[in-house]
Amino acid sequence: MSTIIKATNISKVYHKTTIPVHALNKLSVNIEEGEFTAIVGPSGCGKTTLLNILGGLDQPTEGKVEIAGTDISTMKDSELIDFRLKNIGFVFQAYNLIPVLTAIENVEFIMLLQKRNKKERHTRAMELLERMDISDKANNKPSQLSGGQQQRVAVARALASKPRFILADEPTANLDSASTSNLLDLMAKMNLEQNATFIFSTHDQRVMDKARRIITLEDGAIVSDVKR
To answer: How many Cβ atoms are within 10 Å of 112's Cβ, its own excluded?
Structure first.
């Protein structure tokens, strides 16, 4: 396996009040291709901050992040937007689907931004919806889908651009038990069959049970890193 993400001495300090808040403290971690990793820990430990920095949605105060050998820590905003579009998939707790678009249009949207042709977009989107067991809802808008169905569309959208890895921030937080189980099974299947790399931040024990690596944070630092 090759190293996709190399984070070195990452620190993040927020100055929202007169007292600086140290969200991450000289944290270093490598993520390999094909991993199914959960980042866990108490609220406020830095899970989401770490995910945002690994995904180029936020910049570290100190340290650097390399993705497939490219240092994204010094990129300009315009460069980061293009880099994320080509390399990183995102799945959010709140789904973040575009309400006026159908399920298949939501999945196609990122490929539209990548300027792929219409036939390729449609074929790829339908293939992913089928893999996520939701192709029968391809022409439904988000308001016509359950939470679990919306999150499956969101995962399909994250995979559509053929990213190097997918970052999933609390993806099961708004789902019931059955929807969570189905979604995790589908993502685990994509991980094994397609070698899709997933990195979760989560409080959910069900996600932890599926993960093959668990990284535990406390006070912005790694206190445990266990591969199974």
So the answer is: 12
